Amino acid sequence: MTVPLTPSAVLMEACTAAGIDARDALPVRIAENEIWRLPGSGVIARIAREGQQQAAIREVRVARWLADHGVPAVRALSVDQPLEAAGQPVTFWEELPPHERGTVQDVVHLIKLLHSLRPPRFGLGRLDPFVRVSERIAAASSLSDHDRDWLRRRLDELKDQWEQRPVGRPDCVVHGDAWVGNVARTAAGSILMDFERVSIGPPEWDLVSTALKVTTTGAVSAQEYDAFCTEYGMDVTCWEGYELLADARELRMATYAAQHAANRPEWHAEAQYRVDCLRGRTGPRPWRWTGIL
Predict the structure, then answer these.
(1) pTM of the predicted model as reported, rounded to 2 decimal places
(2) Domains (ranges, CATH) in the chain?
(3) Are 183 and 107 in contact (CB under 8 A)?
(4) SS3 category, 200
(5) Are 249 and 237 spatial neighbours (Cβ–Cβ below 8 Å)?
């Protein structure tokens, strides 16, 4: 039986193939995707899950398309990529200058710009709001079988509702995961990151993540959200389809925590709390969900 390579071994193999110096590589974030900083090269390496080659190809294409259109976004390195190591696609990106997490105003500025672009000639595919949710539920071993069965039924319900969702604004290029964690603020301005979910879909989907910070988690003030809505020109919470999109996003957030809690005991309580919230065990919104990564 072949022994799987460690993340650092996968990184080294890909960097060797690309001719990139991987000495003193430092892990930045090890989650669904593994992010590494290569200090000797000024490069960030991103190792995706096995089987995600096409998604990695699309990410690089999207980055180069955004660069061609002058959108402030992370830049893919000018090498032939993605590369594959031990079945995992690896992509390489220019390291950002000193930065901090973006604000909700940075998010709305960038997604408004993204939504204004005509779709690229290469295929982006349709938005799938439920991608990997089933796999996350299956992996959520810290939850009871009863809770996981409930999550599966909830997923099926939302999928059925999605097929009959209300018509909103015209579909466009959407980021797919537009929140402050995917925006970096540098001295020169805000920069968009993470193109794994870029696709064609309802623009309202990119507005929901920020709206949830008001209605669900209470992490964004009413004043911040008002400014967000004013800049975009829409308050998605007033749209008839908001509840469905919010429910889908909440399910993603809960199952994301549950998936990772399976291997991190310190996150068991947060994962269980999110499920309890969805199941009506903890009282009405807003809930106080705590970030796990």
Answers:
(1) 0.93
(2) 8-95 (3.30.200.20), 104-278 (3.90.1200.10)
(3) yes
(4) strand
(5) no
Say which DSSP state 39 is in. T
Angstrom distance (rounded) from CA 171 to CA 169: 6
**Residue whose tokens read 């929140």:** 179
The beta-strand segments (E) located in 21-178 are: 26-30, 34-38, 43-47, 83-85, 88-94, 99-101, 172-174
Residue type, 221: S
Residue 214 vs residues 44, 105, 211, 246, 279: alpha-carbon distances, Å: 33, 14, 5, 11, 20
Q: Is 52 helix (H, G, I), strand (E, B) or coil?
A: coil
Determine the Cα–Cα distance for residues 88 and 77; give it in Å rounded to an integer: 18
Who contacts 10 (Cβ-Cβ below 8 Å, separation ≥6)?
Answer: 47, 85, 86, 88, 90
Say how far apart CA 40 and CA 24 lie, in whole Å: 7
Count the Cβ atoms, other than its own, within 10 Å of residue 149: 12
Residues with Cβ within 8 Å of residue 110, at least 6 apart in sequence: 71, 72, 73, 175, 178, 183, 190, 192
Using alpha carbons, select from 17, 11, 166 the residue that is nearest to residue 79.
17
Can you give the pLDDT of all 293 residues of the chain as single tens digits? 455 678 788 999 999 999 999 889 999 887 778 999 999 889 999 999 888 899 999 999 999 999 999 999 999 999 999 999 989 999 999 999 999 999 999 999 999 999 999 999 999 999 999 999 999 999 999 999 999 999 999 999 999 999 999 999 999 999 999 999 999 999 999 999 999 999 999 999 999 999 999 999 999 999 999 999 999 999 999 999 999 999 999 999 999 999 999 999 999 999 999 999 999 999 999 998 988 86
String of DSSP letters for 80-116: S--EEETTEEEEEEEPP-SEEE--HHHHHHHHHHHHT
Q: How far is CA 67 from CA 71, 158, 196, in A?
A: 6, 36, 16
